[in-house]
Amino acid sequence: MTVDRAQLEVDLLPQFLFSGKTPKKDSFAWKLLLVLLIGLCGLSICFVRVGQKNVFTEAGIFGRQAVSIAHCPNLSQNSTKDIQLHYPKPRRYQREECFCTPVHFFVILSMQRSGSGWFETLLNDHPNISSHGEIFGGRERQYWNFTFISKRLDSVYNLDYKSSAAKNECTSAVGFKWMLNQGVMEYHREILSYFRRRGVSVIFLLRRNLLRRLVSILANAYDKEMKLLNGTHKSHVHSKEEANTLAYFKPVINHQALSESFHHIVRLTGNALKAFNSTRHTVVYYEDLVERKEMLEQIQEFLGVPILTLRSQQVKIHTKPLSDQIRNWDIVYDTLNGTEFEKFLVDTQYT
Ligand SMILES: *[C@@H]1O[C@H](CO)[C@@H](O)[C@H](O)[C@H]1NC(C)=O
Ligand SMILES: *[C@@H]1O[C@H](CO)[C@@H](O)[C@H](O)[C@H]1NC(C)=O
Ligand SMILES: *[C@@H]1O[C@H](CO)[C@@H](O)[C@H](O)[C@H]1NC(C)=O
Ligand SMILES: *[C@@H]1O[C@H](CO)[C@@H](O)[C@H](O)[C@H]1NC(C)=O
Ligand SMILES: *[C@@H]1O[C@H](CO)[C@@H](O)[C@H](O)[C@H]1NC(C)=O
Ligand SMILES: *[C@@H]1O[C@H](CO)[C@@H](O)[C@H](O)[C@H]1NC(C)=O
Ligand SMILES: *[C@@H]1O[C@H](CO)[C@@H](O)[C@H](O)[C@H]1NC(C)=O
Q1: Which E.C. number(s) belong to this protein (predicted)?
Q2: Residue ranges of domains in the chain
Q3: CB within 8 Å of 29: residues ≥ 6 apart
Q4: C-alpha to C-alpha distance for 257 and 167, rounded to whole angstroms
Q5: Stretch 284-288: mean pLDDT, rounded?
Q6: pTM for this predicted structure
Q7: 170 CA to centre of ligand 3 in angstroms
Q8: Which of 74, 77, 79, 84 should be mutated for ligand 1, with most atoms under 8 A from CB?
């Protein structure tokens, strides 16, 4: 159910029941009748269960504060697989039949062009996972502070954040993707304490081959300018033809800056792993996800959701050997050969 529909229902019910207003349209009459019928059923159940208590706030179907998690299993007695679970109470809608479905909070910490877009489409293929994309991807980043960040985190974990990924009622794992250059490291102490307090599990999604990542970054930046697909820029594609068009571009790589930029990424990743080491976390490499189907099952297990086969419509853009994708390949090869980064040159995958 979409947020809008749920919102409508929740907002209409109290109005009909308590304010005495009559609905404007005749077609609402049957709905009113239905609502009253359901209400009566609810009342009888509640009288049996809670006796003298205020039935309207206990019943779970009326009004905004209608939720009483007293009827759901006590979560603090369940510490299966050390996952911390919650019963969120969204502000705009009821969780309906999944009212007592506990929710696990997660975050994907990653870097641009590391397969996280593809990874999220896979996760969102699961009926019980909502992963909201880059909620801190906006341009106004320099004005943010932790107050702002924690409010937005709250809205995600309270199942109030709206995006096309939101599955609302029956979500049992909710999260988003957060790039390491989007404030994660600046506020890592506050964020760590938030994660620990609320039991947020961390998925590090990293890419082993930083040279391939660089090709992807440069090609994506080029396409932002050139808009190769009928004048529109695309970071991810859904067909072989589009992939081929985008992969046609071969960047020239500034070999002098190469080692330093790799060192920078290695440092950044190491710092992030250290900063969030005390959370419940897992490290996933993009290359392993591509090669090994069972990785996706392990991640579903980590998230505590039923294990299903997940699919994505996205098509990989760069599938050729690296030597075919870099215009000054010889220089790049000589620069990296004999260094700690020479493993990026050996390109057993995708060939
Ligand atoms: C749930 O269990 C915990 C620990 O066993 C207990 O302290 C708490 O009072 C229980 N809560 C409810 C609502 O029963
Ligand atoms: C708690 O654990 C029991 C069995 O260990 C399970 O039957 C029950 O569904 C769990 N409750 C929740 C809310 O996860
Ligand atoms: C998953 O979602 C389906 C419906 O979308 C729901 O029936 C089911 O209870 C949910 N399961 C879990 C474990 O959250
Ligand atoms: C945090 O940022 C918000 C929005 O930019 C601003 O309204 C608020 O005053 C800031 N709070 C602090 C404590 O700086
Ligand atoms: C782009 O143009 C090609 C032909 O030039 C056409 O086949 C394709 O459908 C177009 N794609 C979009 C998304 O408009
Ligand atoms: C994380 O902590 C474990 C032990 O608690 C330690 O062995 C490991 O080296 C730490 N990893 C990082 C990246 O700090
Ligand atoms: C890579 O470096 C080694 C020495 O470090 C050299 O023997 C080898 O020829 C180099 N490879 C290429 C393709 O230049």
Answers
A1: 2.8.2.-
A2: 3-68, 81-344
A3: 23
A4: 44
A5: 94
A6: 0.77
A7: 5
A8: 74
